[in-house]
Amino acid sequence: MTDFRFIFKLFLLAFTTLHPLLASDTPSNVTLEPSHTNILAGTKWHLIEFQSMDDAQGIKRTDDPSKYTMNLHEDGTVTMKLNCNIAKGTWSIKEGQSPISGQFQFGKLATTRAFCPPPSMDVFISMQVPYIRSYLFKDEKLYLSLMADGGIFVWKKDTDESMEMKADPKLETAIRSLYPDYNDKLINPIYGVKKARYVYGHVDLNEDGNSEVFVYLMGSIFCGTGGCNLLLFTEEENGYRLIDQFATTRIPVIVSNEKNHGWKNITWLKSGGGYPSLYLTYMFNGKHYVETQSTSSKKVPEGKPYLSGELTFHDGIPLEPNK
Predict the structure, then answer these.
(1) Is the pTM of this model over 0.90?
(2) Does residue 45 contact residue 69 with C-beta atoms inside 8 Å?
(3) Phi, psi angles (nearest 5°) of residue 6
(4) Domain tally for the chain?
(5) How far apart are CA 189 and CA 109, in angstroms?
(6) What is the pLDDT of residues 257-289, one digit of tens each?
(7) CB burial class (10 A; 0-12, 13-18, 19+) of residue 63?
(8) How far is 145 from 131, CA to CA, in rounded Å?
């Protein structure tokens, strides 16, 4: 048995003494704390390995950590990518004496059932996660332990700074001001019209030391077959000011080192909506960005991608409508 597994086993023994719930061998219906109040809310992870407490089974590592990701949203929902499948549900925790450890549990997860080519851990993970009972956050890793010494899932924190998923009230105010018709009357889940969601990323496009912000809106209200609305704000002392907006875009946004009028060029892939797949490049003309050229989709343009990575609608931050 590895040293860490031995130490973690001692931690579990002490913790289950204080919390008998963790020693139970059946899924629990106990309600834990609202997820948005703790240090794990709004974080994204990718799976490194599963550590069995049975030395005969040992450690099971993923063949590619990017195939297995977990988004712990601030609203208490979770989205997991399990190789070729997606799982959605809820999560909650109850902190111990320190916020870095305590009880952890998932609610019911709805999982797609595609057959993923081997080797794949999707079925194994789906079967085990309902029995997770505790967590330990240490050295940018999250250790989720199964009940009754069943094993430990080890997740590594995603530190990609190109996309943020924590709500920004001032940014939401700026977004809503652009769309006065986005209100409660427009939302109708019966007809598939849900509240929109958004993600955003900070970038200094003109290298003046102040951040610009890309905002990608998601949902049927702001999206079509060719993509969704992209907004570009600059951050000011009292909020955000709109620089430009683009309809039917796809992410990621690629930011080039090449400049025009002191602002970096930006590029993204245009596809769908009856259009051929092409990379469109926009240059700043002194007031706003204008499309200047298109290139083949077979070669990714040089630059740093923003708003990148696997993203589903449920990964976005809920955008409350105008009242």
Answers:
(1) no
(2) yes
(3) -65, -45
(4) 2
(5) 21
(6) 899 999 999 999 988 767 788 999 999 999 999
(7) exposed
(8) 8
